[in-house]
Specification:
InterPro entries: Crypto/Photolyase_FAD-like_sf, PhrB-like, Rossmann-like_a/b/a_fold, UV-DNA_repair_photolyase. The chain is mainly alpha-helical. The protein has three domains: about 110 residues, HUPs (Rossmann fold); about 150 residues, Serine Threonine Protein Phosphatase 5, Tetratricopeptide repeat; about 170 residues, Orthogonal Bundle (DNA Cyclobutane Dipyrimidine Photolyase, subunit A, domain 3). Helix content is about 50%, strand content about 5%. It has a two-stranded parallel ribbon with strand order 1-2. The model has no long low-confidence stretch (mean pLDDT about 95). The structure holds iron/sulfur cluster (SF4). Iron/sulfur cluster binds next to helix 13, helix 17 and helix 18.
Length: about 500
């Protein structure tokens, strides 16, 4: 489902291409309906693209009852065509690689075929090379990797090897809050064609009880539409992407974000094309440097880095839980029905369209999950199931590591946590909330406040030698004992009622 690359097919030039919509896989992940519909429709359009390129396609769709999973589809194909060799591209997800290995070990003989695994060239990073760099380090820092990638690929670098504009990273120029009334050009909406309509119907029929909805589906599912959506972003939203990268605004689920991660992650777009297009737009004077560098950092920096981290530390990485957080997710993670306005907006967006942008994921949802001591594995499963762009290699490092700092600090040098002050500065959510972002205790107190300060109080010892936490810990120490006691009590009540309890469940 994530290797829809026509170049790969051309390179391998196989006798036939096998495409499987695995009912068992989608059911096991309890995926959001939007996510399944996107992938199924993209696979079906890809089948046409492969046929048009002159290759035979064997396509096992959701509707064909005997082929519930990949093994039965492979068995059927081998029997029907009598092939002796089966070629797979090395999967990007660890559990798929384990499955392929087991297939090669145990089943190939029984099937009478040889399984050959070809390298995965859909990423810019060599897994072994990354692991050799990362594994000996206590903290393989993204910034170091990113600079190496800029230099290696020759992106936004001068002839003498220095960064264009004099600085490698303009993160500090990516933090403007957005104001109500500002106009943000929406992403391209594609009307579902007959193939997509068929996929939407199949998803509703086969997975009626999965979370989310197929209503309002307007994602690109062909390579041509993916490229149109990408060009639309470069033209209309990239120029201000840099300024408002960290902003959040009611009624603006996309803002200036590209909204192409799902296309990139199934190989309808290629990372190097995006990087070269953005660099060209900058060099032609169409976008400012903080936008170009900010976007390129996400692709050749963060995206490649988390892929490398994933393959360097899996499978133990997914089980990391450095603070022993155990709470399960409250039911409102599947509805968005909570009185906390920021979480309500961010989670409702996920329920509606299987998407929220980066800063909503990091500084609202994961921030809350960290402060409320939710289980990193439960949060990881939720992100994996609910997002249209989710794949294990991207979700796990971003949630267990970056989002919840449960990996012991391998990725992030400090937890990405904040009180209500950050959310109030970067969004308009607090203006419509029943809680008061300025209050730490009492009926109107914002939960982010007492969760934040009691978290710091509780883990003061653990973070005391971390220079990036010094200021936060000092501020926590200044809080009078009586107020800290009140916040502890309020935290306890909140967890009982809003996280563990039934009282607020929809
Ligand atoms: Fe979120 Fe607190 Fe602001 Fe309400 S007041 S929107 S809960 S940060």
């Amino acid at each position: 489902e994530d290797q829809l690359s026509i170049e790969l097919v051309r390179q391998l030039s196989p006798d036939r291409v096998l495409l499987i919509e695995s009912r068992r896989h989608y059911a096991a992940g309890e995926f959001h309906k939007h996510r399944i519909a996107f992938q199924v429709s993209a696979i079906r359009h890809f089948a046409d693209e492969v046929r048009a390129a002159g290759f035979a396609v064997h396509h096992y769709g959701l509707g064909r009852r005997p082929y519930l999973d990949s093994v039965s589809a492979i068995k059927h194909l081998v029997k029907a065509c009598g092939d002796s060799q089966f070629v797979v591209i090395d999967p990007s997800e660890h559990h798929c690689a384990v499955w392929i290995d087991s297939l090669a070990d145990a089943q190939a003989e029984a099937l009478g075929i040889e399984i050959r695994i070809e390298p995965n060239t859909l990423f810019l990073t060599d897994r072994e090379e990354f692991a050799a760099w990362a594994q000996p380090l206590k903290r393989p820092i993204m910034e170091h990797f990113y600079r190496r990638m800029r230099t290696k690929l020759g992106v936004l670098v001068e002839a003498d090897g220095s960064p264009v504009g004099g600085e490698w990273n303009l993160d500090k120029e990516n933090r403007k809050p957005a104001k109500r009334g500002m106009m943000f050009p929406p992403p391209l909406a594609i009307s579902p064609d007959a193939i997509t309509q068929g996929a939407l119907k199949d998803v509703e029929r086969v997975f009626p009880n999965h979370p989310g909805t197929t209503e309002g589906f307007s994602l690109p599912v062909t390579r041509a539409d993916a490229e149109r959506a990408w060009d639309d972003f470069v033209k209309h939203r990239l120029p201000q992407f840099g300024d408002y990268e960290d902003a959040m605004l009611t009624g603006e689920p996309i803002l200036n974000h590209s909204f192409v991660s799902m296309l990139l992650n199934v190989a309808l777009l290629s990372p190097m094309k995006l990087v070269r297009d953005v660099e060209a737009a900058y060099r032609a004077g169409r976008v400012p440097l903080n936008s170009a560098e900010g976007f390129i950092r996400q692709i050749i920096g963060w995206r490649e880095y988390v892929y490398g981290i994933y393959w360097s530390f899996m499978p133990e990485y997914r089980a990391r839980n450095s603070r022993g957080s155990k709470l399960d997710l409250p039911d409102w993670f599947w509805t968005g029905k909570t009185e906390m306005n920021c979480l309500s907006h961010c989670i409702s967006g996920v329920v509606e369209r299987a998407y929220s942008h980066h800063i909503q994921r990091l500084m609202v949802i994961c921030n809350f999950a960290t402060l409320a001591a939710l289980s990193p594995q439960a949060v990881n499963d939720w992100f994996y199931a609910m997002y249209v762009d989710s794949h294990d290699w991207v979700v796990t490092p971003n949630v267990v590591g970056m989002g919840m700092n449960a990996d012991g600090g391998t990725i992030a040098t400090k937890p990405y946590i904040s009180s209500a002050a950050y959310i109030n500065r970067m969004s308009d959510y607090c203006q419509g909330c029943r809680f008061d972002p300025a209050e730490r205790t009492g009926e109107l107190a914002c939960p982010f406040n007492y969760l934040f300060w009691t978290f710091l109080h509780h883990f003061a010892d653990r973070f005391k030698n971390n220079p990036r936490m010094t200021m936060m810990l000092k501020n926590a120490q200044k809080i009078e004992a009586d107020q800290m006691r009140q916040m502890m009590q309020q935290r306890k009540t909140f967890i009982e009622l809003h996280v563990r309890g039934k009282a607020y469940r929809p």
